[in-house]
Structure formats: structure tokens, C-alpha cells
Amino acid sequence: MRKITAEVAKHMEKLSNDAGVISALAIDQRGSLKRMLAEAANKPADETTIVDFKKAISKELTPYASSILTDPEYGLPATKLRDENCGLLLAYEKTGYDTTEPGRMCDLIEDQSGLRIKEEGADAIKFLVYYDADEPDAINDKKRAFVERVGAEAKANDLPLFLELLTYDGNMEDVKSAEYAKVKAHKVIEAMKEFSEPRYNVSVLKVELPFNLKYVEGFAEGDVIYTRAEALNLLKEQSDATDLPYIFLSAGVTSEEFIVEIKMAEEAGAQFNGVLCGRATWKPAIKPFAAEGEEVGSKWLAEQGKENIENLNAALKGAKSWKDKLTAE
């Protein structure tokens, strides 16, 4: 059982539901979301539509989420419209990664700090790191030190740190490929083991499923890489890899696919603690919002978006309370 301060525990309470399960909504996408909105509207990307879209999501969907994750660059106006019972996570990293050197290095938003995130009313800091456990130490040690610094800031400000782990292989181009699917479980589980170490001061891991559903027996569109039983075993192995609370990210799958994955985790006996779900909930709203107007997009969110998030909440009955793993000093 990990020890946390009473102040951190108070924030964790705000971020989770009455059962201690994290049912969070993610709208911290920036560059990719601007591109999708611009493509749907068939016009160049602007700085206004993305803000308005995030505001609409926050207004329509936060009554059904335990917390919301957004970014300080475009998402702060949306935080003012969230439901009063909805907790807030703010992203600390810049969008994307450095393409001028190997290793997919992230960086922090230049005009932000742990203190400023706290002053914006956030209940947690979220930091994303791209991690390939098999890359050279010259690359990975920089990332480990980076997370140590962010963890120290979170600790100094009595905020939980939600660490998002996105895995890849430095020798492969496409993480959606069959080739990567064969090594994904190893990458995800090793990353979780590393950043579960106390030195990082991580409160919650935000992680991928250890397989790509499109290569699992019964769901595969082509090659079958894992039987269903093997996929369930991987979910249990993932659960055993950490003593920290961990939550699943949706990784761009549909709402229906994500619910299938969550139910598989329950079936496997995985001790997961909720979700931080983004595009699976609201992505189809992009086209009506950008092409037909804010009123049409908001109507989609109020109807289908609400249904998506309520279906996901219903699927979380197998999730466990974070209090099973963290206790206030």
C-alpha cells in the first residue's frame, strides 16, 4: 500500500467517483484535434474552433464524468464550464514530440509549472512520456530524469501525478502494425514496471491495453496474433506489473471497442482503477461541429456523446477503487 499525503488524497477523491473509480474524460488533444476540425470544416485550422469544441465537450459531458483532462493552451475556457462535481487534470507537456533527434523526447509547456497548474484549480498534473524500454540508456535515462523532475514538482505542490505512457519501438514506423502488435505487451508492461518505482512520485499510471484488439482472436480483421485466452493472460500480467493505481486510455479506438477491452480486463481479474477516455467518447462529434455548426455538434454530444460515456461508466463495474492501493498518511 503506497502512502500519500492527506492533501493528495483529497484531490484523488475529487478525481474519482463515490466508489473510488476514475471515470475521466480526456480533451487534451491539440495538434491532432486542430487538424481533424480543419479537415471536417474544409478550411485552414484556426485558434478559435478548437477552444469552442473543448468548451462544448466540457459543458455537455462533464456531468457524467468523475473528472476531465485538458490542456492549459486551449482548454482553460472549457474548465470554467465543467460540472461542479467534476475534478480537473491539466496536461504539463507540449503536444507531440521532438522529431529532430531519436527517442521521441517530450518537453514541458514553457509558461507552465506545477505551481501554476495548481493555481489554475487543477486536482492533478498529467505528464505524457513516449517510452521504448529497449532503446539505449542514453535516451531512456533522459526520460527517467524528466519524470523524476515532474514528480518532484507534483510532490512539492501536493498534487497527484498522472503519468501517461505511450509505447513504441524505435526501429518500427507504425505502432498499429502487426509487427508492433507482437511486441506491444512487452513494451507496455516494462514501461509500467519502470515508472512504478517510488522515485518517480507517480500517483496513477495512464496506460495502453497490452495488445491491439484488431489482432486478437474473435476481433481480428486479418492476422490473429493472440488467442482470446492469451489476451486475457496479458491483461492479468499487466495488472501484476504495478502496485500503483492504473487506468486505461482509449488510444483512438471506437467507444464499442473500448468497452469490449474494459470488459476483458474485468474478466481477466485485472486490478485496474478506471479510464481516461478521449476520442472514443467524442470523436464523431468533430464533423457535425466543424461542418454544420456548434449547435449541431453540441446536440450530438448531448445525445450520442452522453450515451457513449454512460455506456462506458456502466462497463466500469469491474474497476477497483484507487483506495485499495493508496492510503493517506
Task: Explain what this protein looks like in three dimensions.
The protein has an eight-stranded parallel β-barrel, surrounded by four helices. A two-stranded parallel ribbon has the order 1-10. The chain starts with a strand and ends with a strand. The longest helix is centred in the last third of the chain and has 22 residues, at 294-315. The mean pLDDT is 96. Helix 3 (49-61) crosses helix 13, helix 10 (255-268) runs parallel beside helix 13 (294-315) and helix 12 packs antiparallel against helix 13. The protein is globular, with a radius of gyration of 19 Å. It has a single domain (2-328), classed as TIM Barrel, CATH 3.20.20. The protein has helices at 6-15, 31-41, 49-61, 76-79, 114-119, 137-156, 178-181, 184-195, 228-240, 255-268, 279-282, 286-292, 294-315; strands at residues 2-4, 22-26, 67-70, 87-91, 124-131, 161-167, 204-207, 246-249, 274-277, 326-328. Helix 5 links the parallel strand 4 (87-91) and strand 5 (124-131). It is an alpha/beta fold and 329 residues long.
At a glance:
43% of the residues lie in helices and 14% in strands. The chain is built from 13 helices and 10 strands.
